[in-house]
Amino acid sequence: MAAGTNRKIAASSARAHTRTAKKSVSFKLPSGLFKKIVLVFFVGMLAWGYQAIQPPAPKKCGSPGGPPITAPRIKLRDGRYLAYKEHGLPRDAAKFKIVFVHGFTSWRHDAIVANYPSPELFNELGIYIVSFDRPGYGESDPNPKRTVKSMALDIEELADQLGLGSKFYVIGFSMGGQVVWSCLKYIPHRLYGTALLAPAVNFFWSGFPANLSKEVFNQLLPQDCWALRVAHYVPWLTYWWNTQKLFPPMSVIAGIPDVFSQQDLGLVNKFAINHREQSTRQGDYESLHRDLMVAFGSWEFDPTGLEKSPDMEGSVHLWQGDEDRLVPVTLQRYIVQKLPWIQYHELPGAGHMFPLAEGISDNIIKALLIGKN
Questions:
Q1: What pLDDT, in 10s, does the model give residues 22-44?
Q2: What is the pLDDT of residues 219-263, one digit of tens each?
Q3: Organism's domain of life (predicted)?
Q4: What pLDDT, on a 0 to 100 scale, did the predictor assign at position 2?
Q5: CA torsion sign, 278 to 283 to 287 to 289?
Q6: Could you tell me what percent of the chain has a pLDDT over 90?
Q7: Which among 57, 59, 120 is positioned nearest to 88, based on CA atoms?
Q8: Are 198 and 321 within 8 A, CB to CB?
């Protein structure tokens, strides 16, 4: 009886063992297949990631499917076109000739000092102003090779082709104000004088004390800190960072009003300024994103170490609001302490958009052209 029982148990165990063995064999992948699946998945993720960080090609004005050309344009030496707009007196009749450089999310029509001064000022002083679309903005061709230096050379060539003479004035606002530093470095012999209006500051300039730049940098909105870090350290991720949905993009690109002071909001609402769609009609990458990569990248020189060129006959002015939430006044104060040859105008209670305030454009122009504050 015991022997029979043992035989039944043995048979049962054998069948159970066979079923277990068969079950384990059914889930075993063929040799090498698992590695191939992992490799394919990895390559697929790389391909997806590469596509995600690639910006779309710009829609150049005048190209098939691109925006129409409506502005006068000059052709630069490298084949690009630069669109411009003229204001004030005719070139030949003007005593003072000024090139205006627009800011971020703007274009040639946002020539603040040409649009908002008193009507009689142009005739009284004899002023001509030309504003232009910076590369990739409005109707100017993109410049994938844009650098800090190339912007100054574009301005010089614009002035030459329009016949502004051997010397002229340059006024820049915000990101365009930062371009004026390039003019002071690379074409000082072509300048009578310049005005920088709330010029954007590169927190990574080597001339800033590390503790000062870090302290001011950390006062920015967290999303702006990250956007600027990306533009500086990994510029090839700038497009992805400002278009992905996982993290908030640069506040100005996202249109967040928190970056404006109370005065700014009142001025912007009063003058209904919002040209984002028109200014970036060729795409955000070669306008906004390229701006960030150049402005906050590694510069070829440090503006805090500039010396005034003996070739420049006039003066250099820097205007700044002390309640500017986009460009910290603390760093502007440090810059003018390092560069005592700059005439500094700090406006109490003013934000970033102070040039729109009544009378300010007149003051900026008079201080630059005739030395009248």
A1: 444 455 656 566 565 665 555 55
A2: 999 999 999 999 999 999 999 999 988 889 999 998 888 888 988
A3: Eukaryota
A4: 46
A5: positive
A6: 71
A7: 120
A8: yes
Whether 92 shows a pLDDT value over 80: the answer reads yes
Looking up tokens 């390039």, which residue turns up? Answer: 182
If residue 268 lies in a helix (H) or strand (E), which one and from where to where? helix 262-271
pLDDT at 164 over 70: yes
Residue 1 pLDDT grade (very low, low, confident, very high; cuts 50, 70, 90): very low
pLDDT in tens, 288-323: 999 999 999 999 999 999 999 998 989 999 999 999
User: Could you read off the pLDDT of 181-220 as tens digits, one per residue?
Assistant: 999 999 999 999 999 999 999 999 999 999 999 999 999 9
Sequence length of the chain is: 373
Pick from 220, 231, 293: which is nearest to 256 by CA?
A: 220
Place of tokens 């109490």: 348
For residue 74, give both structure tokens.
């000059």
Q: What is the mean pLDDT of the chain?
A: 88
Q: How many CB atoms lie within 10 A of CB 50?
A: 9
Cα-based distances in Å from 299 to 207, 241, 295, 343, 347: 11, 22, 8, 24, 29
Which residue has 């005005």 as its token pair? 195
Amino acid at 10: A
CATH number of 73-370, picked from 3.40.50.1820, 1.10.3210.10, 3.10.20.310, 3.40.50.12370: 3.40.50.1820
